[in-house]
User: Which sequence fits this backbone?
């Protein structure tokens, strides 16, 4: 253990207002929600002497509520709560599935949706689902709430566009206009639990008249510094019938929106090939 | 299956279970040492070069800390194992990343890490040797004139002539990677200096007398006492490294005049302590038309890392197991362990045999692919039986169970039928491809060759004043259950209830030198010595009293009567069975007194979308001679199997410029409970006349077969022979893409 307990200064706001005030006063403080990522860094001694903004007592940022045209998920809602929530499972099943595959049961019990987003890992398990559901992130500061489209939250590996004094307060999930005809969620890890993703995929497909594609939404994680929607593929198939030639072209197009790399977890070649396989079987099904 | 005795053959509660379940067992981190300092190690950041300067930050409050360097070492600056080439603290030359340079102790456990950050080291860096091929090409000379730590040659028959007359000649190359032991408890050690100048060390270790031997050269003229703390797993990883850590803790204790504790965290432990030797093994095999072995020509290269440590003996075991459990009239095995600029590799369950047996078994798949012969039939045709002659000329005289293990696992796993149904399923569309693979292995328990004779291990049984029997040996309990097994053997020999026998803590001040707790030797060798010691005690008591009492009261009385006539401790030494003959110079003869045998099938599926491997079922049939404690034997087989499956499938140690870059469990992926397959365990008891109650060793054997069985199963599923562990989904993907491109 290289973290120094004696060096830790803890700020513990009770309300949203207190939280943003405290953050404004201590801009170097590290916001902590479930703490599952913080614990690792702290243990390595990387957070010594840094104040901690413990958000766990901010009751207003917990839980799932109805909102106009959708659901409002408090930033402190845990993966376990989302995994088990009836309304999430009914209307946003890919998110429930993603939450069921995060880390382990223990991590699902502690880790929160807001923390997951703020941590901005390229391998965030919930991100492709949130991307295809076109979620919106509420960033709160003492000046009010800024609503940011989900894909615009990320600025790079472990980087967000959140300002110095902003905290994620909620994630808004707009209901889908119609039930999709096909959905897919797939996490490709290194083992069956406690795995960091090599690839995460989520997709929604609506078919129209004559089984032509009325809309495709498909997102990939761990394939670029941030989660990516496959815009080229989505545009390619829109309004057209899914025949073998179109599927083959669409699968080729998958490379246009992602930038997979070789790292200690996998290879670029594997990531691209498997992403294409997932997309192909989704479109062919 | 033989009938259970009063203690042997029964799955009795472990003697250490109570303390561990109640959480009162004291691991080194639990040990309170009032006023102790905490020590950390300043390590090299380069792979190869010389130290230009070491500077202590003048702004840091060093008055609270104690710093020790090479100049503080009173004796030799070395960690003696087989040789003494490894320094305790690098004196000027750096041979690998994470090499210890300097030690810092501080009273605050959390702050001590900060102190170590205020030591600046500058280097003159040189181009390092990072692979065995760079080492063999002598990119830099790290050792002698050729970078070779040790080499062996086994020759039997006439290999060249046999190749000339062969119907089939098959060549293949196989590679295995580093493997981390992943014991639950990282390395840790405490040390202090007694008023009379004696040094005492306590810690997590396998071999107290190895530590003592190493410290005697570092601290000459001092008494050295070594005590094993409760140890949370080792798997070979605490065979030689604790000597280094004990030297560090003792050096800081000597300089500071205070007790010092050194506790590695996971990342430091993984990045700086030993790993399984990576290997490159090449096979060239001559076979008759029907698949009978005519000649095996095998070349073995192990990556030893920067210092010699245990590499010669790891290589020796690897060399002796390289042919697999098969009889072949003409054999040549040439093996070398070479130096590279990475932390020294060391002992790990199987000790070189898993590497060479992986190659031998995976090579059957290559032979099957090139000849069209069936891998099961090939094994049936060539496996060793009673009377078979191994490459060293050893004639197998008893307890030879290769055929029995093979046939039992084939039957229990429905191997042949499963293979046929999988083949049908793989031709149809579906989500997965399926495969079942087979491997057959052996393992020689106990030290190789003359090792046991040279160790001359001793162990004793004592009748104590309170009417209990004490087992005195330096053999360490590290989770495997040896304390229970040694107590069982002693109780059985004396005809006593197990509760009357206690096992002494391994402490060099209290127990004789029983050698190291390694090499699957404990049950067979130390158990055998204790059996003789117990018989001596029994004989003495019977001589005096006419019979041997079986109650505490009776034993107490016997002790009182005997005490006046001499000591009540009966010590015995290892005696080599006369029929076991080994010629070390010629490298010929009985390399091991006997062998254990195991056959394994692995049934798995490969996802056609993601190429992820899922284990469906594993079957093992294992000959242990006699299961002294059947449940512990099952634990060894199940645990060893899962550990080997991790090596086969997911454990990918990534080394960059000689340093492990994934030294945490986040990215070094060991199997979890949910990855462990259902395992059907089948224990065969084919007794060995020289083992206590017929027992042979079991600790290492289960690590040998699972990996090649995985490779065989993946070949059935995908058609790819991946001879380079681990079999990652990425390798399957790249193989399939390459095949598609080629066709």
Assistant:
């Amino acid at each position: 253990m290289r973290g120094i307990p004696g060096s830790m200064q803890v700020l513990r706001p009770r309300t949203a207002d207190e939280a943003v005030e405290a953050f404004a006063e201590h801009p170097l403080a590290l916001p902590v929600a479930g703490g599952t990522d913080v614990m690792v860094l702290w243990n390595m001694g990387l957070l010594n002497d840094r104040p901690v903004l413990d958000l766990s007592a901010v009751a207003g940022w917990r839980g799932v509520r109805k909102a106009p045209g959708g659901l409002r998920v408090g930033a402190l809602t845990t993966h376990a709560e989302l995994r088990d929530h009836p309304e999430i499972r009914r209307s946003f099943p890919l998110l429930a599935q993603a939450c069921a595959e995060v880390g382990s049961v223990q991590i699902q019990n502690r880790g929160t949706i807001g923390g997951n987003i703020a941590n901005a890992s390229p391998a965030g398990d919930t991100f492709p689902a949130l991307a295809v559901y076109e979620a919106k992130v509420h960033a709160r500061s003492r000046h009010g709430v800024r609503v940011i489209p989900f894909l615009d939250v990320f600025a790079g590996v472990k980087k967000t566009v959140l300002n110095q004094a902003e905290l994620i307060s909620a994630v808004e999930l707009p209901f889908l206009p119609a039930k999709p005809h096909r959905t897919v969620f797939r996490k490709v890890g290194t083992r069956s639990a406690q795995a960091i993703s090599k690839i995460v995929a989520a997709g929604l497909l609506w078919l129209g008249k004559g089984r032509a594609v009325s809309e495709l939404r498909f997102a990939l994680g761990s394939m670029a510094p941030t989660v990516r929607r496959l815009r080229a593929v989505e545009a390619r198939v829109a309004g057209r019938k899914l025949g073998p030639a179109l599927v083959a072209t669409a699968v080729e197009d998958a490379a246009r929106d992602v930038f997979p790399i070789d790292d200690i977890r996998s290879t670029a070649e594997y990531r691209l090939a498997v992403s294409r396989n997932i997309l192909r079987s989704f479109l062919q099904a | 299956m033989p009938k259970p005795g009063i203690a042997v053959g029964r799955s009795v509660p472990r003697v250490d279970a109570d303390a561990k379940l109640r959480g009162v067992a004291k691991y080194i981190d639990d040990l309170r040492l009032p006023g102790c300092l905490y020590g950390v190690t300043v390590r090299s950041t380069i792979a190869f070069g010389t130290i230009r300067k070491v500077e202590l930050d003048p702004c840091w409050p060093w008055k609270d800390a104690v710093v020790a360097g090479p100049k503080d070492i009173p004796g030799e600056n070395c960690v003696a194992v087989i040789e003494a080439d490894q320094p305790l603290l690098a004196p000027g030359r750096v041979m690998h990343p994470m090499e210890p340079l300097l030690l810092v102790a501080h009273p605050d456990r959390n702050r001590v890490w900060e102190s170590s950050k205020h030591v600046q080291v500058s280097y003159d860096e040189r181009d390092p040797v990072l692979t065995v091929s760079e080492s063999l090409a002598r990119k830099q000379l790290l050792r002698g004139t050729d970078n070779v730590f040790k080499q062996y040659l086994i020759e039997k028959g006439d290999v060249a002539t046999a190749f000339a007359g062969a119907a089939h000649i098959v060549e293949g190359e196989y590679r295995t990677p580093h493997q981390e032991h992943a014991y639950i408890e990282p390395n840790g050690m405490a040390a202090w200096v007694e008023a009379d100048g004696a040094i005492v060390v306590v810690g997590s270790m396998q071999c107290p007398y190895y530590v003592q031997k190493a410290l005697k050269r570092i601290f000459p003229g001092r008494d050295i006492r070594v005590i094993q703390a409760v140890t949370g797993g080792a798997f070979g990883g605490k065979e030689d490294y604790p000597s280094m850590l004990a030297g560090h803790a003792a050096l800081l204790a000597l300089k500071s005049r205070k007790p010092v504790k050194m506790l590695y965290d996971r990342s430091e432990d993984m990045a700086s302590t030993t790993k399984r030797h990576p290997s490159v093994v090449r096979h060239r095999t001559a076979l008759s038309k029907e698949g009978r072995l005519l000649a095996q020509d095998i070349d073995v290269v192990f990556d030893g890392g920067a210092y010699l440590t245990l590499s010669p003996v790891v290589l020796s075991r690897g060399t002796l197991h390289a042919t697999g459990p098969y009889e072949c009239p003409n054999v040549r095995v040439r093996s070398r362990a070479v130096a590279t600029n990475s932390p020294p590799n060391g002992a790990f369950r199987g000790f070189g045999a898993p590497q060479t047996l992986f190659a031998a078994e995976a090579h059957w798949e290559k032979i099957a692919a090139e000849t069209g012969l069936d891998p099961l039939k090939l094994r049936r045709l060539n496996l060793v039986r009673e009377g078979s002659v191994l490459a060293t000329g050893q004639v197998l005289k008893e307890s030879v169970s290769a055929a029995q293990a093979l046939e039992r696992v084939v039957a229990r796993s429905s191997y042949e039928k499963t293979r046929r149904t999988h083949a049908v399923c793989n031709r149809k569309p579906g989500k997965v491809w399926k495969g079942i693979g087979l491997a057959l292995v052996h393992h020689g328990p106990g030290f190789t060759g003359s090792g046991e004779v040279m160790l001359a291990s001793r162990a004793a049984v004592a009748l104590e004043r309170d009417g209990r029997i004490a087992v005195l040996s330096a053999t360490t309990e590290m989770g495997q259950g040896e304390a229970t097994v040694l107590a069982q053997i002693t109780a059985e020999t004396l005809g006593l209830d197990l509760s009357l026998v206690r096992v002494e803590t391994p402490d060099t001040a209290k127990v004789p030198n029983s050698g190291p707790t390694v090499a699957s030797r404990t049950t067979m060798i130390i158990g055998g010595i204790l059996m003789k010691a117990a018989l001596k005690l029994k004989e003495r008591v019977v001589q005096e009293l006419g019979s041997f009492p079986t109650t505490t009261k009776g034993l107490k009385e016997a002790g009182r009567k005997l005490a006046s006539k001499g000591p009540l401790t009966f010590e015995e030494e290892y005696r080599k069975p006369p029929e076991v003959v080994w010629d070390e110079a010629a490298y010929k003869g009985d390399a091991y007194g006997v062998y254990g045998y195991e056959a394994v099938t692995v049934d798995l599926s490969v996802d056609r979308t993601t190429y992820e491997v899922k284990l469906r079922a594993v079957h093992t049939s294992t000959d242990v001679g006699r299961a002294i404690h059947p449940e512990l034997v099952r634990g060894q087989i199940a645990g060893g199997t899962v550990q080997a499956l991790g090596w086969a499938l997911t454990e990918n140690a990534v080394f960059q410029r000689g340093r492990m870059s994934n030294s945490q469990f986040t990215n070094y992926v060991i199997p979890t409970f949910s990855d462990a397959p259902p395992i059907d365990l089948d224990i065969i008891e084919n007794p060995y006349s020289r083992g206590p109650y017929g027992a042979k060793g079991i600790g290492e054997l289960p690590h040998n077969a699972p990996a090649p069985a995985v490779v065989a199963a993946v070949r059935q599923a995908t058609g790819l022979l991946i001879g380079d562990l681990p079999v990652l989904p990425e390798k399957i993907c790249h193989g399939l893409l390459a095949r598609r491109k080629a066709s």
Notes: The first helix of chain B runs from residue 17 to 21. Chain B has three domains: 17-25+457-573, 31-126+182-272, 279-447+589-742. The longest strand of chain B covers residues 293-305.
